[in-house]
Amino acid sequence: MAKLSKVGLAPPPPRPYSIIGLTPAATMPIDFEGQRYDLANLTESELSYLLQFPQQVPYLQTDNVGDVPV
Amino acid sequence: MAIEYKDLLGPNGEENNMGGTEQIVYLIRKSDVKTYPAPAAAPANKYVMNTPYVLNTGKKAMQLYTTEDMSELDLGSNGEADGKSFKPMLKLFYPGIDEDAIQFINDVKNDKVNMLVPLNNGKIIQLGSGKHFMTVSPEMKTGTVSGRGLGTFIEISGFVPNILFYSAAVPLTPAP
């Protein structure tokens, strides 16, 4: 039990974005447009792509949203 | 919104019209949903859902596998003249039987659900909404030694006023 608690409380690695509306975890899968994305471990290009769809994928926040081409 | 049909000019050779469905479909229980998908504020097409399901704490969309070439979705016409609607019928086959499968079969038989069905062209059909729900009819069969093999034929059906596309994220991570 103590082991599980340690794993469950492990802080997520720092990311250049924050995730809202989903439970934080080491992996956070969603499916969108026929592709599987792990929101906890997005590549730069995946993040840039998903930020173009704030209504369809309303889980991502970044200070640089305005810089992402729409 | 006034009805205005767009020209339907047929294939240009770039389409993928593979039949059946993808081998993973998604099930969302009525009791797990906080808010249902909706079209965009000023939609170009009001039958395309543009926002995702928002689920209750700890809930997520369930993934349901189907054996290849054993899934099909019919969106049949329902009703009489001036009273038409649609009667979706999704057929799947889940191979084998284990504790998780038999728990699903037993618990889902009287549940109310929505389904997200990915087609092989990348589109997702949404079956059900906040006002119309699907029911699941699982039928486990041993089959014969030389037949399909042990597994469960699953039929998911209901009645809906319109066919809907779902173009938002499928939440496979539990809601907080």
Automatic annotation (TrEMBL), chain A:
Q: Which domain of life is it from?
A: Bacteria
Task: Return the protein name.
Answer: Uncharacterized protein
Source organism of the structure:
Spirosoma sordidisoli
Automatic annotation (TrEMBL), chain B:
**Record-given protein name:** Uncharacterized protein
